[in-house]
Design goal:
CATH class of the largest domain: Alpha Beta
Number of strands: 14
Structural class: alpha/beta
Largest sheet: 6 strands, parallel
Distance between the termini: 37 Å
Strand content: 15-25%
Helix content: 40-55%
Radius of gyration: 19 Å
Shape: globular
Strand order of the largest sheet: 3-2-1-4-5-6
Length: 309
């Protein structure tokens, strides 16, 4: 393959992400986990599927970061997953130390890579990676809005009983309970959503979108979502490696856009071979601006709680 992607974490999210990237033949994949045998075994299992599915990308796995050298993109999924009753914020202290060590290793072997953060609490973990790596904001991106918008799009499709391919939607803000669905910008084959659904049904979709992750956690009992998150990562990796210049909602480090500064917040961003190449500023109503500010304030509280390093 022309490209190499590292996936840190061989749990459900990481392994499914590695599988999707390889099966799409986007890149060769190196999967790293503190449980080296787990990563090795899952990589071997995936490669034994290659003759059946017909993909030629290579997947390797282990506990050593040396094979990750020269990765074009590094996807970070390592960390503790949520349990029922646990918020993303509860994971802050436990996952900060993990992300510090992971980022140190990735930068050592791939100093020019682009990091896609998946570990929760996502916006704060992006900040940890930024501080440790010293990377410019273009090369640290959080996978949040793509997933949240995908959930919203499915809920809309299910409510209207139409194809998901007809639906576009944006979700802004932090990846948590304060995220900001934007039904005003949601369209169904170009038709604004408010013309097709009553306000109360739209608000129900907004509420379900905000709690989409928790809904899955409650069903699983142990662990959290991984099919949709891995698909969202695939979309981002493809946009970067293929230089698609695709506009996707992602957590990016804002520098005054939307009136926010020095904070990772979910907004529409143009993704290409350089990573996050442009922030797209939407014209928000006063209420939408207030919701986004509230979400940003929640992210700021998490970042403030991070240990100094």
């Amino acid at each position: 393959m022309q490209y190499k992607v590292t996936v840190v974490g061989a749990g459900n999210v990481g392994a499914t992400t590695a599988q999707r990237i390889a099966e799409a033949e986007l890149a060769d994949v190196v999967m790293v986990d503190v449980l080296a045998d787990l990563a090795t075994g899952k990589a071997l299992d995936m490669m034994e599927a290659a003759p059946v599915l017909g993909f030629n990308a290579k997947i390797s796995g282990g506990g050593d970061y040396a094979p990750t050298a020269g990765s074009d993109v590094c996807v970070v999924t390592s960390g503790l997953a949520r349990k029922p009753g646990m918020s993303r914020d509860d994971l802050l202290a436990k996952n900060t130390d993990i992300i510090r060590e992971v980022t140190t290793q990735l930068v050592k072997y791939s100093p020019d890579t682009i990091i896609i953060m998946v570990t929760n609490p996502l916006d704060a973990m992006c900040e940890v990676a930024r501080r440790v790596s010293g990377f410019p904001r273009e090369r640290i991106i959080g996978m949040a809005g793509v997933l949240d918008a995908a959930r919203m799009r499915w809920f809309i499709a299910d409510a209207l009983k139409i194809s998901v391919q007809d639906i576009d939607a944006f979700v802004l803000g932090g990846h948590g309970d304060t995220m900001v669905p934007l039904p005003r910008y949601a369209t169904v084959n170009g038709i604004p959503l408010p013309q097709l659904l009553a306000a109360d049904k739209i608000e129900a979709i907004n509420a379900r979108t905000r709690s989409g992750g928790a809904e899955i956690v409650n069903y699983y009992k142990q662990g959290s979502a991984y099919y949709a998150p891995s698909a969202a990562v695939l979309d981002m990796v493809a946009a970067i490696l293929h230089d698609k210049k695709k506009i996707l909602p992602c957590a990016v480090y804002l520098n005054g856009e939307y009136g926010l500064k020095d904070l990772f917040v979910g907004v529409p961003a143009l993704l290409g071979r350089k990573g996050m190449e442009k922030v797209i500023e939407l014209d928000l109503s006063a209420d939408e601006k207030a919701q986004l500010q509230k979400s940003a304030d929640a992210v700021h509280e998490l970042v403030t709680a991070l240990p100094k390093f």
